[in-house]
Amino acid sequence: MVSMRAIQIPRLDGPGAAELVEIDEPSPGQDVLIDVYAAGVAFPDALQTRGLYQHRPELPYVPGAEVAGVVRSAPADAHVSAGDRVAALTMFTGAMAEVVAVPADRVFALPDAVSFTAGAGLLFNDLTVHCALRTRGRLAPGETVLVHGAAGGIGTSTLRLAKAWGAARTIAVTSTPEKGDVARAAGATDVVLADGFKDAVKELTDGRGVDVVVDPVGGDRFTDSLRSLAAGGRLLVIGFTGGDIPTVKVNRLLLNNVDAVGVGWGAWAATHPGYLAEQWRELEPLLASGVVAAPEPVVHPLERAGEAIASLEDRSATGKVVVAVR
Ligand SMILES: NC(=O)c1ccc[n+]([C@@H]2O[C@H](COP(=O)([O-])OP(=O)(O)OC[C@H]3O[C@@H](n4cnc5c(N)ncnc54)[C@H](OP(=O)(O)O)[C@@H]3O)[C@@H](O)[C@H]2O)c1
């Protein structure tokens, strides 16, 4: 067996447990074998290091859900072949290693315009946001989208993509003015602080409210998010970085004719064959043409993967975070 460098999580006491190790390279079997150049870091990576995510891998495990790199080998019937630049979903572990083996339906040809570091940070958030806005949220042309955690991975992805899919206006909610600058750079039309966002949104929309709320934060903002919706509006439940899982008094849905909509992208993809390819067909031309930019993320070296994961947990991260593997 040939060995490779990888990050491993040997125990569930947080990102600080991450260590650089030598382990055996995977064997391809029926999968596509990829030489990894960079691996993405997402909030579930932080949750998993404490055993707090719904997917609980056996210890020790290699963290990371997505990579970008070059195909080393592929089955004859795959849509990619040796030498192709690709991005791929390892879902939800295995990415922070020099070599990964991934089923072909989770491998996507990377447009030339997208670097490996940018490519490693695209799929997880952009495909979740596609699922949220297009599939579950029914975003219509001319609508207004509000996004919480707007300087984060899901947040900046929403700000990059919402206008390409018809939104006329995007309102970013961030905890600090500095994060507001990050959201503005990602394309936000307006930026408001999390503290008191409901009144700020009311003023910005002349009392009407917004059509769609993208909510990766949850917690105590939830009720004010429902109150910020216009009639017919949808609150898209993406995640709970705020910690608490909110509860809904359903009379609020009835009184204002609004929907609270669950968005579980991984579960949707698992139950809808061909969905990932369909999503990529809508996303890839936007990236290849530059209509939607694939911004350069914050890059940490592989040996600092623990710090990279910790930056999401301690809320210091902005935009997307990746680790450079080669
Ligand atoms: N449903 C799905 O299919 C799906 C798919 C992918 C990810 N997710 C979920 O989406 C959420 C966001 O992921 P992400 O990768 O975008 O994370 P991220 O880059 O870390 O961004 C999350 C944002 O949440 C805000 N936040 C509020 N309270 C926080 C706290 N106590 N700790 C940390 N952040 C806090 C922060 O913005 P402010 O400081 O500005 O408030 C931060 O920028 C996660 O819960 C993840 O599990 C869901």
Task: Give your account of this protein's structure.
This is NADPH:quinone oxidoreductase. The chain is of the alpha/beta class and 326 residues long. It has two domains: 151 residues, Medium-chain alcohol dehydrogenases, catalytic domain (Quinone Oxidoreductase, Chain A, domain 1, Alpha-Beta Complex), CATH 3.90.180; 141 residues, Rossmann fold (3-Layer(aba) Sandwich). 29% of the residues lie in helices and 25% in strands. The chain has eleven helices and 15 strands. The strands form three sheets. Strands 3, 4, 5, 6, 7, 14 and 15 form a seven-stranded mixed beta sheet that branches. The protein is globular and about 65 Å long. 49% of the residues are buried. The model has no long low-confidence stretch (mean pLDDT 97). NADP nicotinamide-adenine-dinucleotide phosphate binds next to helix 1, helix 3, helix 4 and helix 9. The site of NADP nicotinamide-adenine-dinucleotide phosphate has 29 residues, from helix 1, helix 3, helix 4 and helix 9.
Oligomer: single chain
Silhouette: globular
Which hetero compounds are present in the coordinates? NADP nicotinamide-adenine-dinucleotide phosphate
Average pLDDT level: 97
Named CATH topology of the largest domain: Quinone Oxidoreductase, Chain A, domain 1
CATH homology superfamily name of the largest domain: Medium-chain alcohol dehydrogenases, catalytic domain
Helix content: 25-40%
Distance between the termini: 20 Å
Query: Which class of secondary structure composition applies to the elements?
Result: alpha/beta
Order of helices and strands: EEEHEEEEHHEHEHEHEHEHEHHEHE
CATH class group of the largest domain: Alpha Beta
Main sheet attributes: strand count, strand direction, barrel closure: 7 strands, mixed
Specify the CATH architecture of the largest domain: Alpha-Beta Complex
In angstroms, what is the radius of gyration?
Answer: 19 Å
Unreliable parts: none
Number of helices: 11
Kindly give the count of domains: 2
Tally of DSSP β-strands: 15
